[in-house]
Structure formats: structure tokens, C-alpha cells
Design brief:
heterodimer; A: 726 residues; alpha+beta; 6-stranded antiparallel β-sheet; 21 helices; 14 strands; B: 663 residues; 13% strand; globular; transmembrane (chain B); Protein O-mannosyl-transferase 2 (chain B); repeat (chain B); membrane (chain B)
Amino acid sequence: MLGFLKKPVVVTAEINLSLVALTVVGLMSRLWGLSYPRAVVFDEVYYGQFVSLYMKRIFFVDDSGPPLGHMLLALGGYLGGFDGNFLWNRIGAEYSTNVPVCSLRFLPALAGALCIPLAYQILVELQFSHCAALGAALLILLENSLITQSRFMLLESILIFFILLAVLSYLKFYNLQRHSSFSGRWWFWLLLTGVACSCAVGVKYMGLFTYMLLLVIAGLHFWHMLGDQNLSNVSLVCHFLARGLTLLIIPVATYLSFFYVHLTLLYRSGPHDQIMTSAFQASLEGGLARITQGQPLEVAYGSQITLRNVLGKPMQCWLHSHTNTYPIRYENGRGSSHQQQVTCYPFKDVNNWWIVKDPGMQQLVVSNPPRPVRHGHIVQLVHGITTRYLNTHDVAAPLSPHSQEVSCYIDYNISMPAQNLWRVEIVNRESDTDVWKTILSEVRFVHVNTSAVLKLSGASLPEWGYRQLEVVGEKLSKGYHQSMVWNVEEHRYGKSQEQKEREVELHSPTRMDISKNLSFMAKFTELQWKILTLKNEDTEHKYSSSALDWITMDTNIAYWLHPTSGAQIHLLGNVCTWASANVAAVVYTCLSLWYLIRRRRKIYDIPEDAWQLWVSAGQICVGGWVVNYLPFFLMEKTLFLYHYLPALTFQILLIPIVLQHLSDHLCRSLLSKSMFSALTVAWFSSVCFAYRTFSPVTYGEPLSVAELKDLRWKDSWNILIRKQGH
Amino acid sequence: ALGLVTLLSFASRFHRLPEPPHVCWDETHFGKMGSYYINRTFFFDVHPPLGKMLIGLAGYLSGYDGTFPFQKPGDRYEQHNYMGMRGFCAFLGSCLVPFAYLTVLELSKSLPAALLTAFILIFDTGCITLSQYILLDPILMFFLMGAVLSMVKCNSCADRPFSASWWLWLSLTGVNLAGAMGVKFVGLFVVLLVGLNTIYDLWDLLGNLSLSLVSVKNLFMLRISLFLELCIGPGDGFFSSAFQSQLIGNNLHNVSIPEHLAYGSVVTMKNLRMAGGYLHSHWHLYPEGVGARQQQVTAYLHKDLNNLWIIKKHDSDIDLLDSSSPVEFVRHGDIIRLEHKETSRNLHSHQHEAPLTRKHFQVTGYGINGTGDSNDFWRIEVVGRRAGKLIKVLRSKIRLTHVATGCILGSSGKTLPKWGWEQVEVTCTPYVKETPNSLWNFEDHINPKLPNISLDVLKPSFVEILLESHMVMIRGNSGLKPKDNEVTSKPWHWPINYQGLRFSGVNETDYRVYLLGNPVVWWLNLFTIGLYLLIAISTAVVLKRGVQLTSEHKGELSRVVLCGGGQVALGWLLHYLPFFMMGRVLYFHHYFPAMLFSSMLTGKYWISLCCQTVSLLPSSGGSHVWWLGFYLFHPLSYGMIGPMASDPSSPMAGLRWMDSWEF
């Protein structure tokens, strides 16, 4: 207890000065002149709008990825006191004074700068020399594309930071494994691996690739442990459980927590509400919640309701009818019933109101006490304004001839009787006696006579139907499809017996009381599902490229151009580094194959431990490159050069590994060793030279036309040269 | 035993083969294509040609004259002789059973296991149905099983390389693989399986230090050469289509045309992307709501008179074919106008969005008799050339820039909907980028005032044709996207036998055939796969933990479980998993190759498991159960008439074990 009285308190600190120096230089390279240019640069226009929405706490859905990245950017805005008032509409637009440019860009830049010490540490943990580690850090430091990408409000640098952090902590954990399992540090690094992985996935789904890679590597390492006869079965099980907990359960929990924070922050309704279900919308402040707040929960006979289709595609819409009838003959010569049209209408309208009626009674008001409608009950649906009954019969629908036409019945006194009985089936019921609830219940309407199901076909009617969406009775209603499911959105108990009064009532806004809340898990599932399935139309972009262009850097992206001077910023890599990274990958593959075949013939060129090092370095670096690059060949989305940056980072780490291996094992004589070092120095100075040459377009320094032309080393690069002499 | 199995198999496949005497399901395609071969008509299809050629051959030999139109399912054959083709397919389908029998016998060296596998396949209603009609699947599965069998045989003679039987099986593997590749692209998976097996084998040999490096190298070279032979194999199959396209489809063959482009020439323009079409237009207009309501311009893959365009000067409209005026060549950088020959409208673009690629501009045909507006002007440029140079037919890569908007004429490669006759969209792209999509060349060139040169030099090589025809096929294959609202079969449905496929007949009075696996067999297969995975993993872990297996017998078991079973399980995986990643329309019958593998696994595995406890009892009991399943469900494959199974009075009513079955 009182040990400090007996012994002096000594703090021994070991500081790796080169690491500190690297970090400082890295910070300088990324943070220097951060608020320049004071204009919207490239994808800032995209992420900026989300930052603004976070500041205003307005709910949005972004199909490009999970929310952590956006939230980190928004954190920057929050710390800088950003109020969210800026119109993000055009690349190159000047920032107004209320936008804290520097603090918005600070976090990505910081993450980008921290990648440099991480790279150093990774090489050290891979058991390579200080010199190689220094080389890796310097190469990352001098990589123009990484600098450009870090200096703006973009997500790639944050993603790369988390990826490298995950790799580093796994390596630290693995190296501790041999002598101190289950120690505090062991647990710390293992936990950090899991958390960093889920952060990477949380920033962009691309992080999933690295996560998978680490899982596979962890699996392999565990497989080797299985063969270790010194470990007891019990300790193996403990090891297995520890890994399962930290690498599977913790990441999932962390990932969920991002969404929890996201949903807690964004509680106001906003532009993307319509994508979500009514129940979700009702949980947001303003918007639908304002209307539905205080509605009665249970639908009863006599209720006045609006019915929304659950599918929400091609747009959200409500069951609708109006006085116009189906044309007697369609353009293609088929006939119709000439009864009143029933459609799905994408806007709020008084004609969207329907009244639930008991077939056995005449009254259209709610009795006291209300008699709730339950699963399996048979009802009639009366259109509020025209008081006609929802009806379907064996007449082909206007656009989907295989289905039945749905109409509001008009008695023409011909041999076509009304068939207006519908059975209510609650799809998400818990028991067979469930009550039909507003918003929460998803309902199918099954026609009693023909067992057709009320369905939104998704086609839009021609001019005579005012381009509203077609509603049909689907006869072959196999299985569950959202287009056949409806839910009550607005709801009130009808009071007026007379049609005139009722019309007034229908026009008046609803109010009464009860509030609904969705559980977090329900909200999360819905939002996650929407993010994954929501597809933007395949867009083409001026600077989009194919994955094959990236290896050779045949493409670039112009991020920003000064309106008057020639200053511009491009995403353009260090040519020298990219080329040598490719060479390193090829050399590594060839050498590995060579060693592998020779070892199979029991010829050992390099000592066993050197071989182990070589393999484990390859697992991380080549593996990281492969998993972050090859999947893009299978993707159908629009691709940009910056998608390659994570893969590139891994490839760069490979360069010093290959160099050190070459100098250690292939340069046998002293002379060749010194020759090799000289070559390395020469090569490194060329990297520096390339960095210097391209740094004007990295930092956006003004350049003359001639200088710009000199920079265009490849014809396929799109460097913007202003025409001279007007 | 082999004789018995074969006999049973043939009996089950040939039983009631002529029924129903009308076209069933995809017979409408493959029978038609067989007829095409007999009639020597050129056609295009997404599958490689070998299978259809074999069908054609079988039809030819059995005296079918190729006159039946095969228009739609349900057409009666009447007097046409279709038995030859069906018999051929049924014959190949029957061979599957002895093949599987021999394979399992070789792998597990146990007669009961082999018998069990054979019985599973004999009594599987799905396999029977699939073998009884004019389809590609029996042919594919024949080659596939043949390849697996010869691979297994070849492995078993690996201890005496270069012996006669080794040579025989090795070359048979190659032939069968080539056959499988030549029937359907699914054959690729079995090539993968054999390839992986070969690599594993070689790796094993490499580690065998008793073999000299020279002999390893010899073996290596041998396998490689075999694989090359195999790659050429499917080429043989392709030769017919390549040859045909050269003779009939391609105007370039033995034709001489003027070399340099001049004003007044009539030309066709071909897009440079792989399998790109010709610039095409026709009288039909873009429908309402799709850009301006002007004449459609598309890219069309086939030769057509509507592909012809006339090159005109942008500023004068004199008749350039007048023999008195001098010839004027088109030069790089000139501004030209392209007039569609059949409709006399100009190639036109404007700032309306294109029909499918919304960020591009629409391209239309505009103007009357060649009189339009300034939006009809295009600058013609040759890639990598300076201004003023002449433009060569075929050899110059052309870019057409729209003068008014600066966009570039290109083909997006997307297929237009019905209103555009499912031709390919042509747009004007504002993104100035060098891709084959926006490059064109002139292919036909007619100008009576110019001397013709021979173009034999430019004939595409065999390899190019092979590559291009494959590209067309693959594109056609992936183009089979499911339409909206269409109910498609999902890969996860298949192993659980979730939903069958209706071969013929919908109503109660029709003669109905329904493709559905014998549920007893299929569910047992599924169960076995799960059990196999469990046991394989636990065995591997136990071995890795270094548990010393006591008896020789157990060592043998683990070897069988891990190696032999691994091969078969890998086969199943390779034939099943890739379907999850495919975008095209999938059908239930795609699972049958994988089902063969899983049946072999079941046969092998249950026996080695049962050998430990009781001897032959379960296998005989098992085959009784399958017999029962087969007996219950045989009307599905041999056809039935009467009320639907959803009707309780039907004899099949009790058999509708899953709601999704529709027989």
C-alpha cells in the first residue's frame, strides 16, 4: 500500500523520437492551410448536406453507407459551432462565414495524418526493421493522393485510419499471444481490433472486406493453435470464446450503437420520410407524427381511414377514388366495366378517405362503444366523398390484364352484381383475434367472392386516369409481397350520419389522442434494410473510372478549380510510389511461388523464421490489397479512383517489406548490399521528386499554363487548362 | 450389379417416353434449334452449339426431317418423328446412373455405397423427368458425370502413370470436359473441379521426393498440354458457328470495297465495343414521354437495310453521286451530316435526356428528305490522327462529335424496352472519354465512283471470332434478366425442393408433367450435406488435435470422409454456390448437376456410416423408402390427367406436402 514511501516514484518513458517526428511532419503535411480553398470541394457537396441535416437534427437516409462517417464529419461541424445553414448545391461555391471550414475538415485530416505512425507500427509489429518501418511511414507521408483525400470533408481517410488501426491492433494482439495470453494488454488489443473493425464498417461498407480478412487470418491462427499439443482443451475453448466475443459480438454491438446514436440525434422529419413506413414516419417529430398524433389506435366499424400501400415503390401512395369512370373501351380495344376508377394517388387528398362499414348494418358512424375490426372480419370499404363501395369483379384490369379490375361500384342495372365484401387479414398479427390497428397493422384485403387480393400493380395509368397508379385484384396471390399489403395512416372515428356533414368532417384535419413508438430494433432493421436495398439509378460521372484504370493510375479526379487563377486540386497519386507498389506486388508473388515450389522439393532457400515473416507480411499486405481491390470488378455501381486508396495503402506497405527481404536474403556479398542501398536511396529520392512535382495540384497552389501542361504526364489525365487570350 | 443397375435405369427412363405427344416446355427452343441444324439455317443462341448439334444429329439419324415448327409448348407432333431426339436424350440420361455407380465404387470401394447411389438416382423423379425430353440438361449431365468418372478412374491409376488405362482415362477426361463446356456454360464448373483436382494432384507429386524433378516436370507438361487440348475442345464445337458467321453473317468475306471514305458514300457504322451493333434507324418514333417524339435511332446487332447511312456535306445538298462532279474525300475534322438511307432523316441530337441513360442526350432521326437543322451536324474525327487526313474504311477508329452540344455519339449497351424492338440504346454522351462505347468504324462502303480494294487482309482471325461469339453469348445470357413481378426461382429453393417446374399442362384436363425431385431423396441429400459438414469439421479438428486413432479402420474412415467425400462435396459447392451470384433468370433445373453430386455424397456417406453398426440392413430399408417415394410421386414425371392436387378428390391430394408445389 504505502510502497511509494519506501521507494521513489520513478517514471521511465521510452519515446521513439523518429516516430514523434514522423507524426509531427505528417500532421503538418495534412493540416497545413486546411481552410484553403474556402469553397466546396468535390464530394463535400454530398457529405455537407448530411452534416447540415445533422446540425438541424433532421432525419435522412443515405444509401451510400452506414452513419458513423457522417456522424464524425458532423462532430467536426458541431465542435466548430456550425448551424447547418448553407446551401450545398454546387462544387466550387464559396463558403459563407458561418461555415467553420477548418473544423469540418479537421477530423479527416487528423485521421489521415495518424495513418503515418500506424504504418510505422504495423511494420514493426510484423517484425521488420526500424528502417523498413520508417520507409513505409515516409511512403505514406509522401503519397499525394492520400494527402488530397485527407484534406477535405471526405470519408476515405477515416476509413483507412480505422482499417490500419484494426490491422495494427490485431498484430499487437497476436504478438502478445505467445507469452501473455489473457493479460490486460492482450484483452485491450483484441477488443480494439473488434471495435476498429466495426468502426471501419460503420464508415463505409468497404470496411467489411478488411474485417473479413482479419476474421480469416484469426481463424487460420486459431487453426494453428489447435495443433499445439501443449494447450489443454479447456484453454482452447476459452481462446475460441474470447475471439468469438470480441471479433463477432462486440463489432455487431458497436455497429448497432452507431445506429442508436444516429436515430437519437435525428428526431425531426425531413426530405426522405416517404421512403420509410408510416410507423417509422410517425416516430419522427413533425411530418406525419403531427397528423397522426392523437389518432385512435383501433380501427372500428365506422372508422374513417386513409390506406397507404406498404411497398412505397415507385412512390408512396394512398388508395384513392374519384368520380371519373374507366373508359368503355381502352386504346387496345379491350372493354372495361365503365365503373368508377380506383387508383393509388401519391398525394394527400380528401378523396383518399375510406369508411369501414359492417356489411350487416347501414350506419357509417362509430357506435358507442366502438366495435373494433379484427383479423378475419368481413368489411365493406366505402369511399368517403362519393359513398360508393370498393368492388372487384372478373373484368381485366386496364394495364395488367391478368388481374382483376378494381372499381367503386355503380349500379348500371345490367347483369353485373356488386361484389364488395372484403376479408381483412392482418399480416403481422400475433394471434388470430388481433385488432386492426392504425399505422402498426399491415393488412391484406382478400375479396370474398373471387379471393383476389387488393394490390398496387405499380403501372401508371394513361391520361384518362390522370397518370395515377393502377390498383388491381391479384388472383394468383402466392406468398407475401409488399405491394399487396396496406396500412391505415390517418384515422378518426366517423361521427356524422349525413353525407354533407361527413364531407365537412372529411375535409377537417384529424385530431385525437394516442402516441406510437417503435422499438429501436424495429427502427434499425427498417433503416438498415432501406439503406441496403435503396438503389440510386446507375449514374455516370465525368470522372468515374473502371477498376482496371486504377493500377496504372490512368485516371484522375479534378476536385476543385480556382475561378480565376490556374490553381486547382486533383486527386492524383505519386506516380513513383504507385509504380513501385505494383512492382513490389509482382515481385512478392513471384518470389513466394518460387519459394513455395522449392520448399515442396525440400529445398530451403531462406531460414524458417524468415519464411514465416515473409508469409505473415504477405497475408496482411497482399491480402489487404486483394480484398480491397478485386471486389470492385464485380460491382455495378459508379466507381471512382478514390475507391482504390485503401487497397493502395496496403500495397505501399508491401514495398519496404520486399526491399528489406531482397537486401537481407538475396544480396549476399557486402558489395551488392551497398549497391542495393544506393539504389534504394536513388529510388527514394525519385519518390520525393515526384511528390514535389505534384504537390501544387495536391495543395492547390496557383500554376501557369505551361507548368500545368508539364504536369500532364499521361494523356488520359484530365488537367484543366484554361484557354488563353480571349 | 452394374448390369442390373443399368437395366433398371434404362427401363425407368424409357418408360412411356413418347408421352405426351406434344411439345413440352423448353423443347420448343432446343427442338427448334435441332431443326435449324438439319435445315442448315443460321441462328443465334445463348448456349454453345454442341448440345444442339447433337440433338440435330440424333433427329437426322432417326429420320426427322426438320419440318416441325416447334412454335409453342403444347403443339402436337402429329406425324413428325420426335422419338429419335427424345430417345437420344433419354439414353444419355440413363447413362448417368451407371456412371454414378462406377464413380462411387471407385471412390469408396464399397459395393453397397455404389448401389445406394444408383438407386437414389434411379428413383429420383426429377432426374427421370429431365431425361425424358429434348433438353440440353441430359447431354450436359452426361458429359459432366463422364468427366468426373474418368477423373476418378485416372486418379486411381496414378500409381502407374503412362500405362494404357491411365492414358485412356486422362484423354477421356479431356474429351468429356470439352463436351460439357460445349453444351452449356455451366460446364465451366466441372472444368474448375477437375482443374482444382489436377493442381492438388500435381502439388502432391511435387512433394514426393522419390520422383525426380524431371519426371514431375514431364507429368506437369503432360497435364498442361491436356488442359490446352481441352481448351481447344470447346473451340471445335464453336467452329460451326464461327464458320457460319463468316460465310453467311459476314459481308466482309471475299468482298472488296473502296478504301477511303468520300462524300456521297453509303456506309454502315459498327460500334467498337465487343459485340456492339450497327447504327440503325427505322420509321418508328420514340414513344410519348421519352424525350422528343422523333424517329428512333438504335444499335442493331444484325445486318439490315436500315443500317445504311449516306454521308453528306453539312452545308450543301447537291447530289454527290452525279457522275460529273469530282470525288471529294471526307477528311479528319470535317463537319458532316449522316442521312438515313431508307427514311431520309438526318442523324440528330439535342438536349433531351436519352431514354435509358438519363445523363446522356437523346439521338434521333430528324428532318424531311435530308433537310433538318443545325443539330444534325457532326464532326468526324479519327482517333490519334491529325487534321486533314483521309478516313479509311474498317481501319480507322471514328469518333463523331455533335457540333452544337459537344457530346459524342455512343452506344450505351443497354437494351431498349419493347417500343424499341429490344435493340440497343444509342446516346450522345457529354462525358468526353475514350471508350470503345463511343468509337465506331465504317464497315460496308458503297461508292460506285471509287475503285475497290480487296479486304482479305482484314478478315478477323478465328480467335477473334471465337472471343466475340462468346461475348455475344455471355451478354445474351446475362441479358435474361427477370422482368418485374415475374416469379422466379431462387437458389435457396432448390435443395429443399421448394418448388417444381411445370413441364406441360396447366388445367385439370391436360396431360400434366411436373418436374419435382423425389422429396424423400432430396431431403435426405440435404440432411446428409449438413451431417457431412459437421462430421468433416469435427474429424478435421480431432485430427489436428493429434488424437491418435486406434484402429486402422478409423484412419481409413477419416481418409474417406476428408478426401473422397471432399471431392464430391466440392463438386456440389462448385455447381451450386455460383448461382447465388448470377443476375439472370434462374430455373429449378439448374440445380440438377449439383444434385448428382449430393446424391453421390449421400450414397457414399451413409454406407460408410452404417458399416460401423449394422451391415446391409439400412441400405435395403433405405431403398424401400425411396421406392415408396418414387411410387408415390411417379405420376409427376410420367404424366397425369385429372383434377389438380389442390382439389381434395385428386389422387395426388395427399401428396401436396408443401404448399408451393403446383401439380
